[in-house]
Design goal:
Layout: H1 4-7, H2 11-30, H3 35-62, H4 68-101
Helix pairs in contact: 3-4
Length: 104
Amino acid sequence: MSIDAIAALSAAQISATAAAAAPQAAAPQAAGQSFGSMLLANVMHADASVQAAEQAVQAFAVDGQAPPHQVMLALEEARMSLHFALQVRNRLVEGYQELMRMQL
């Protein structure tokens, strides 16, 4: 079985496509954004989503004017942001522990 569409590509086309994709992959580092700043930005985003969810719940509980689906969306976004932040933290702790177990 052969796939004609892949076989039709020449090596020059494949290398041109790879060269076009390479600058896009290196773009975040070229912008000067460090890992620490990216981590801080994501933590701030998680905090903002939690605060937005708290405000939505409070508006729903006090006024009853907030639509329930928007409250649920805000709560779900906050939950997912916190879950993502927790997973990143767990990976960082695992990496640190792995480095500490290395024998020099």
